[in-house]
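Expect sequence, tokenised fold; for instance:
***
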Amino acid sequence: MKKISALVLAALALVSCGNRKAALLPNVSGKAGEVIVVMTKADWEGALGNSTREILAADCPWLPVREPLYTLVNIIPNDFANLFKVHRNIVYFDIDPQAADTGVKYLKDRWATPQCLVYVAAHTGEEALGYLKESGKNMVAYIEQAERDRVISNTMHYEERSIAGQIAPLFGGSPHFPMGYSLKKKTADFVWVADEKQYTNQGVLIYKYPAGADPFTLEKIVAQRNAILKANVPGMFENTYMTTGEVPAPYIEYLKYQGRDFAQVRGWWEVQNDFMAGPFVSQAFYSKDGSEVIVTEAFLYAPKYDKRQYLRQVESLLYSWEWTNEDKAKK
């Protein structure tokens, strides 16, 4: 174990130099949503492994059947060879009684690109468990951001540029969309973009309305959502339309990303008077002049497949929002 620790610490020292260019690194391997956890078998089968699974493989919210947040693969330190070092997401537990520097480090592009590495150094398993419990939410956020950034990067590389060009004049900005998405509907204050395949539908809705007083409460956001979707997103049959499900109840959180503050609502969409349903996530924020609320919303319908990755893909597009002629240096 000490030999492995020395190698890892030496590698981390190289990271701190910052001289290696990402262009010289191989592309990451592994499936989207997969995380390699480097940990001894004894720890994996004990309290440290149990807590790791509770945090990183917790149930993904707002899915109709249980799916883990991430798919975990345990690799013992002695088997952590070059094949695994190029994986997209790695959480490395380095437990060494002689370790000089302990704690949690978040590193990028160590052995491949675009790679995220969470390195946990501790003297004992109990100490590592403490770090895990303290930093679990940050670990999840770091890996989630890495997964999101990969989707956005791929989107920018294979962008269907005509879509954002039609949306930006209406809203002062737009998300970016990859090839496969097309514009389904466009009015003066509502846009519907979707990637529709035989058994999957990944959709993005963008709409706006006057801000009014205190516009970012859950009740006001849901009420506006229901009114706008009733008018703009019909179902397959007469008197059917998309609305917000009451069970499970939607919930709201207030976030900031690249200088943009927004209220994010997660919940369950359903079609009134029909049996279609699925997860959605929306982000509501002020227009540039503050007179209107802009909402970008991602929803998924995939009745025949696991939904975790499909939802993560379309949700990530919301984070690609870019104001027209925005000074990127201010981001």
